[in-house]
Amino acid sequence: MYAALWHALPGPVWVRIIILLVLAAAMLTVLVLWVFPLIDSLTTPQDVIVEE
Amino acid sequence: MRPYNQRVTDQPAAPTRVERRRTRKRLNVVGVLGELLITGGVLVLLFLGWQLWFNDIVFGASQGQAAEELSEQWEGSTETPDKPAVQPSDSDPVVMDAPKENVAFANLIVPRLGVDYKRPIAEGVSTTVLNQSTLGTGHYPSTAMPGGVGNFALSAHRTAYGGSFHNINQLVIGDPIFVETEDGWYKYVFRGLEYVKPNGVGVILPVPQQPELQPTQRMITLTTCNPLLSSAERIIAYGLFDSWYPREGGAPAEISGVASAAGVR
Description:
heterodimer; A: mainly alpha; about 70% helix; rod-shaped; B: alpha+beta; Sortase, Chain: A; eight-stranded mixed beta barrel; 5 helices; 8 strands; about 25% strand
């Protein structure tokens, strides 16, 4: 999978590395801004209050 | 019957080694599955890192910032001396009316929980308050207000969402717990911890665990989850009212650094 991605990328090695870094940063941004908060809201909340 | 070693000619011949290697390169199911599993594992670790560390730091910082802004706002509306108060007020503490839900009305300042520990307190204990990056600490509605006779009961997360009460178990008897409002500073003194089940609502009664008694004392109660990273139990910290410092007289000397940090900056 990742090998195929590596072969699909254009340019010399350093260009491919830069493209991969940009892709990783984009992925991380999407995860932190939207995906993680969504998962967090769906999982069991940590209850901290006392109630009947 | 043909002899056991005779080849069946109408079946395809077994692939040669070269052919096998070629097919493996094109479609390696196990390899792709492995990479997907590794990716999934990394994502789970990233999520945990985000929830328990990164998000905690971000929330903690922005809650501290929100508390600082509240202080500045109050300093703007009432003349607050730069010098710390010489002594607390002799008079009975001013007790404010209950604010609207989800509105920050006070700051919690506990030196034991951090040198510049200051978090905003909002009305209500729903997730709107507790999971909010600018609030985080909630006041149980219908319990007493700061300085009021009865029990000023609060709740906040122990981990994640800023983890305002993370080190609540490290409080030591006699530790000051300050509550800052527009009117001034209320000093409570930590008395002790209690551990209860999640339905142990007795701890936020006007006289904790004594439903039949009428309150005569001014108390503060902090509730959060226990043990760490679990919500199987609740850890409760009690404090007793000690004294109060009107805003016109200046902040208590013990926290004047925290209280005027906004002004100095």
